[in-house]
């Protein structure tokens, strides 16, 4: 009798663990951190000095973790390079690195600190998670010795990886992700040989993780969302804003909207480097964001998110980004096109000469349509509609299709595409669409002062139009549909440091 009851008992127990543990919503926290930088990075420091500096940063992060936990947060994300800064060579980053084991080893550094050698940073992060019962996400450096038996082993006998780690609320290492798409200046780190899609389950949904420049990628960024079907993405960044199209908050929130996933983005804070802009983004809305070019302080943000947005009735429908644009005839115009540069890419532009109108501008296979109405056509501000269809090749290689309406820097048309911070012209109505050859298009609206447009003022229709919803006039700096065409990418986005052989 006992044996026949036993399996039932086990099954019942398992079901109850799931129903008691599972949460419909959770509280997410991100911390924008003003990193305390090392005094010197051109020559190597001792391990002790490196640890002293890292502990100063962890002291600040510790306050944020405690504050977040006290407010009920289940998970907190801290930024890329948040523990030691960003300007290093291979040699000068070395004293900051620790050997980070594969999470499969099932390790709680806080309670078993000696198990994998000297790992004081992992121990401290693990204790922060355990003592405050909160998942902690941080970015640190991993080192892995190698030797001549591996032909790719660097001459100094080790691989060095830009690495995200996650400790669960018991302090256990549950995720380790080596940044796959390094950004060009990251000469201190190696590209991992293979891409890894790092995901893990929690009582509040399935998580994926990647870092900064990875957001431009198919692997791992699109893969964790579309193939691994995660609910939320953890996203440490050290992102410097470049208007018009690559500012952290508009770009990251557009990605979350288009990919229909929660995104927890934590940026470093350094105004002279234009590093600011963190937020918590849900598929249907920006929950909270922070952008501050005035002070040098860090900032904690919290917001409640759905644990499994895919199974919610409010989950947004997929967008067919070219449906509308392919169904209409191009608008004709007697005006001539002119070229303009955005972040080393040459767009084809057309000037908006009147306060209302319809325009089409094309480049290669992409045509962008705009219908708009301004409150008035100011003589001191010039707006242009631009199209780009091509391979971007500076600081990484990736294929783009972009439709954008933007304010030119001054009334000279040669400044269209250059960064500009404020606008007085107000748009009452707009509708922007393009004949995109991709399912991955990120819609952005940036207002004067680099502010996001509140969602009630616009909508993304299922036929791919980015359209005004109310007649409230908005001081628009940039409207953009930023498309990524992954089939036309080279194998890797990043251009690594070339090693002489
Ligand atoms: C950096 O230099 C300052 C001033 O000399 C000193 O107070 C500080 O401890 C140094 N920081 C580190 C991490 O060595
Ligand atoms: C170095 O190579 C030997 C075989 O030649 C191997 O047994 C050893 O594990 C290697 N060490 C490392 C750190 O890869
Ligand atoms: C910001 O970063 C720059 C470049 O790394 C550095 O020189 C500067 O000291 C940093 N500012 C602050 C406030 O840390
Ligand atoms: C723009 O096109 C729409 C139809 O698509 C038309 O109703 C409207 O009058 C046009 N506006 C201008 C200013 O040409």
UniProtKB/TrEMBL annotation:
Position of the signal peptide: none
One Pfam match, given by its short name, reads CN_hydrolase
Instruction: Give one GO molecular function term.
Output: pantetheine hydrolase activity
**Keyword list, A-Z:** Glycoprotein, Hydrolase, Signal
Q: Which residues form the active site?
A: 80 (proton acceptor), 179 (proton donor), 212 (nucleophile)
For the keyword Thylakoid, the answer is no
Instruction: Give the protein's recorded name.
Output: CN hydrolase domain-containing protein
